[in-house]
Amino acid sequence: MVDYPLTPFHLQILERAVQYGEAVALTDDDGDVSFREIYELSFQFATLLDSNGLRKGESILVVLPNSRWYPVLFLGAALIGCPLSGINQDSTADEISYYADQSGAVAAVCTEGNFTRIKGILKVLKIFVFCSEEKYHQFSDAVSLPRYLPLWDSSLPSLFDGIHHEPDDTLLMPFSSGTGGKPRCVMLTHRNYSAATAILKMALFDQLVVESQRKTIALLPFYHASGFWALLYCLLEGCHSIILESFHPISMLEIIHKYKVDTLNVVPSILSFLCRMNTDCYDLSSVRTVLCGSSPLGKELCSCFLEKFPSVQNLIQGFGMTEVVVLSHITPLGLIDEKHLGSCGKLLPGFEAELRDENGDVINRPNCPGELFLKSPTVMSGYYESDEAAEAFHDGWLRTGDVLYYDEDGYYYVVDRVKDLIKVNGMQVSPSELEDIILMDPWVREVAVIGIEHPKSGQVPKAFVVLGEGVNRDVAKNRIISIVKARLAPYKQLRGGIEIVEMLPKTSSGKIKRCELRASMK
């Protein structure tokens, strides 16, 4: 059991902000922001929301890029008990309408660029729009920001003393990634965030703080569970976050070089970028710790990255999901040995785990894959007004939908999503296993494998491949077929064929949307 504070999570951050004072908390394209400024702006936002009729329990849809305003808006909304639901700023009008409906949002915050996409959503009662001072008059039917933020007054904090927050009140309502279908609105509580933070602080970050310069890049989307939790943790611990509005490899390299960043929080696609790029013009030797999650990190990519970046002392992989705030498994500090390369780590303290077979029976032996079930104070309270919440819980356990196994040393390995496993003549084939093998070919940049219908075998694997520039397609296909044939059993062969594509459909966090690939085959 891990102890965690019951103080409302946003108040923990604001109390620390008072302590850190003039220290730099955030840096973005507009300059530095101190912890004092975050504290004051949070109460200014809370006052604005309250004066516009927002009340405890009402959710707010946030359609913004990464910026200094995101955490301020979160803290201000939390002060009056309004959970945020963040989404991709590039979402279409139909997608925004879906998200607003799924979260029950009564207000939205956006930029001038996506205002027109939001304006027509009937359920949104109030729109707050970030716009330049010269254009505020164009948004007369919205509240222009930051123009109409009330001025700071030392009496503002006392205005919210009467709002009571329980540990199990909803704090944030992010959307699950939706790789297997439409995204679902996850309800996360103060208890969830406090527990997740205490667990990772004890198990990981307290061990890093001695060597760390306490500078990192906030480059993962803030509407994504992992990206936003990492930002909030940095605020809680007094670290300096340099914000990237959107991911760009060159910008990331320039920031590492300029600020001597020592800790990166990334996804596998970013590591793949770094492995392929020419980085000789940048001093990246400050990078000591890299945390990588979101999807499995293959052995080949691990080896390539560590060979190219010898300064990295900790390559930490993890397994997690929005439904548990951030992570349930991480690898230990240090460089993982060859035996455990590709593992997502060991179960974190504060979690209980079971692997269950197709019949629901618990698996109690190593190297035997089964669906992962979890218990923890970090587990969500449920999905917002959704019947799927009942399907997500079984006897008090969260059903993850992911197939894993553990070895004799207690290291866990992700096999695949239950829904993604390919059943060839009754035998299960993991898309991830095939993808890892195919990526051994240096001509291959990206790959995704799905199962397609087959009249005799039920399903067979098919690969969608993105090749490097100038590569002959026919020759590449033959190479891939040879590599797979040499390394995998006959029933795992690509009998569904290989399709060369320009790009793979992905979520904003880099996860492949297999559902779209499957839909393209119908």
Automatic annotation (TrEMBL):
GO MF term set: CoA-ligase activity
Main subcellular localisation: other
Domain of life according to the entry: Eukaryota
Compartments (UniProt record): Peroxisome
Keyword line: Ligase, Peroxisome
Gene3D superfamilies for this protein: 3.30.300.30, N-terminal domain of ligase-like
Domain AMP-binding enzyme C-terminal per the UniProt entry, residue ranges: 433-511
Pfam families attached to this UniProt entry: AMP-binding, AMP-binding_C
GO cellular-component term (any): peroxisome
Domain (AMP-dependent synthetase/ligase): residue spans on this chain: 15-384
Annotated InterPro entries: AMP-bd_C, AMP-bd_C_sf, AMP-dep_synth/lig_dom, ANL_N_sf
The family this protein is said to belong to: Belongs to the ATP-dependent AMP-binding enzyme family.
Protein name: AMP-dependent synthetase and ligase domain containing protein
Organism: Haemonchus contortus (Barber pole worm)
